[in-house]
Design goal:
- This protein is about 35% helix and about 25% strand.
- It has 2 domains: about 250 residues, Glutamine Phosphoribosylpyrophosphate, subunit 1, domain 1 (4-Layer Sandwich); about 170 residues, Rossmann fold (3-Layer(aba) Sandwich), CATH 3.40.50.2020.
- The strands form 5 sheets. A 7-stranded antiparallel sheet has the order 3-2-4-1-10-9-11.
- By secondary structure, the chain is α+β, with helices and mostly antiparallel strands.
- α9 runs antiparallel to α16 and α11 packs parallel to α13.
- α10 links the parallel β16 and β17.
- It binds iron/sulfur cluster (SF4).
């Protein structure tokens, strides 16, 4: 999971790209990078949080009015400075690329890129392979002269990518002497939104990003989403070219709404905040129906992604909402921490129960999702330690039963608690009096009920096993899980 941005502006873009990284920091805290260009490319990247990597001096060296940025989602090993995005190549033109997603046919693509021995891979990142495929297809003996000719060439190159590359990919790219390019895979699995602002001279500036969380701060107005299969090119003179090259079902990731995206984001023309409120409403209705005699005294969210859905859940149930668990926000989210032992240690370290909210009460804890189950079990134990009379558990997301191969670093199936336990077994494992998961139908309803969106059917492969790009079978699952395990030991390609 990562965050990407691309900006075309009338003035220097480096500071705004830095702001974009800050506003997308929740999508990746492991590393970050910025590439800008004027007559040559300028790059700065590093491992850690944006504020640890960038400073006045290195931002000042990133000159140019066009650029891209990348936030890297934490991974478990095999991760060096050389694998931090954006990647770049000097042939042809000078191209840099930032990618959010995961290619599922990396091995085939890597073999293709290197077979002619005209290109070499310096890393094990699938994003580098994507860059070289793109660059190869743009390499012409007689380069196009006009913007229109160049856009036609871009269309041909991206169509070839759509034909060859499987998996998920939202991309921002800069090409020296040409401008800013963005495209999104044919099913639009990973998000990519767009915004515009007036430049004060009758022209416009343009921004593209994984989420619109920085638009207001930077003065951009949201202009919807980059459509699945769409290519957009902003030439150096500010001309805008766009074409939807392939039309397939629109299958954006549903987990963005459940967990990843910031609540103030609007993705695929659906408000994340409102979708979470609806998740809470739908789950409360199901709770009343299934457990009419188990109405809690208090609803406490597992902070902080579940806060929004817990609020509407409590409201719908007519019981008090309480922030009975205080979260120390200076510790990273446990979902993205590398090892189980660290995770176990960190829950009590980062969540502090408020006894006055818990003692002698029937407490319902609400979480956005249950992935491995360790955090949930620790929370339940903490509530009992602090005197809860009964503990109920409501989960805004249905059981996560399958790994994600589209850019979210979910564990292998064996590590998922719902990978081999049914809901009764999970209820017992969590040591709760009642457990209720949202069902898939109600989750989809919550995400798609409102908004002027074009979503056909969200990707829910981690919930229902239907991999929307039709690229995952049993053999591929084994291959991808082996690669994922190798990633952790630092040997194999990694998604972005
Ligand atoms: Fe999102 Fe799950 Fe699909 Fe991955 S498998 S893209 S996490 S919905």
């Amino acid at each position: 999971m990562c965050g990407i941005a691309g900006i075309y502006s009338h003035g220097p873009v480096a500071a705004e790209l830095y702001d974009s990284i800050i506003h997308l920091q929740h999508r990746g805290q492991d590393a970050a990078g910025i590439v800008t260009y004027d007559n040559r490319m300028h790059k700065e990247k590093g491992v850690g949080l944006a504020k640890e990597i960038f400073n006045d001096d290195n931002i000042g060296l990133l000159t140019g009015n066009i650029g891209i940025s990348h936030n890297r989602y934490p991974t478990q090993g095999g991760f060096g400075h050389g694998e931090v995005q954006p990647f770049w190549t000097s042939v042809p033109y000078g191209i840099a690329l930032a990618h959010n997603g995961n290619l599922t046919n990396y091995n085939d693509l890597a073999a293709e890129v290197t077979k002619t021995e005209t290109r070499y891979l310096n890393t094990t990142s699938d994003s580098e392979v994507l860059l070289h495929l793109f660059a190869d297809d743009l390499h012409q003996e007689v380069p196009p002269q006009t913007n229109e000719e160049f856009f036609d060439l871009l269309c041909e190159a991206v169509i070839k990518i759509f034909q060859k590359v499987t998996g998920a990919y939202s991309v921002t790219s800069v090409i020296i002497g040409k401008g800013l390019v963005v495209f999104r895979d044919p099913q639009g699995i990973r998000p990519l939104v767009r915004g515009e602002r007036s430049n004060g001279n009758g022209g416009k500036d343009y921004i593209f990003a994984s989420e619109n969380t920085m638009f207001y701060a930077l003065g951009y107005k949201p202009k919807g989403t980059v459509l699945p299969g769409e290519l957009i090119y902003i030439s150096e003179d500010g001309s805008v070219f766009s074409r939807r090259l392939v039309k397939k079902e629109f299958n954006p990731c549903i987990f963005e709404y459940v967990y990843f995206a910031r609540p103030d984001a609007t993705l695929n023309d659906v408000s994340v905040y409102r979708s979470r409120l609806r998740m809470g409403q739908n789950l409360a209705q199901a709770w009343k129906h299934k457990n009419p005699n188990k109405i809690p005294d208090i609803v406490i969210p597992a902070p902080s992604t579940a806060n929004t859905s817990a609020l509407s859940f409590a409201h719908e149930l007519g019981v008090r909402y309480s922030e009975g668990l205080y979260k120390n926000t200076f510790i990273g989210r446990t979902f993205i921490m590398p090892e189980q032992t660290e995770r176990k240690k960190s829950v009590r370290y980062k969540l502090v129960p408020q006894e006055t909210e818990i003692r002698d009460k029937k407490v319902l804890i609400m979480d956005d999702s249950i992935v491995r189950g360790n955090t949930s079990r620790e929370i339940v134990r903490m509530l009992k330690d602090f005197g809860a009379k009964e503990v109920y558990f409501a989960c805004a997301c249905p059981p996560v039963q399958n790994p994600c191969f589209y850019g979210v670093d979910m564990p292998t199936k064996a590590e998922l608690i719902a990978g081999d336990m049914d809901e009764t077994e999970i209820e017992k494992y969590l040591e709760v009096d009642v457990l209720l998961y949202q069902n898939i139908k109600d989750l989809v309803e919550a995400v798609t009920r409102k908004g002027n969106h074009y979503i056909d059917r969200p990707c829910m492969a981690c919930l229902d096993g239907k991999y929307v790009a039709d690229d995952i079978n049993h053999a591929k699952t084994i291959e991808m899980e082996i690669m994922r395990n190798d990633n952790r030991s630092g040997n194999q390609p990694q998604g972005a």
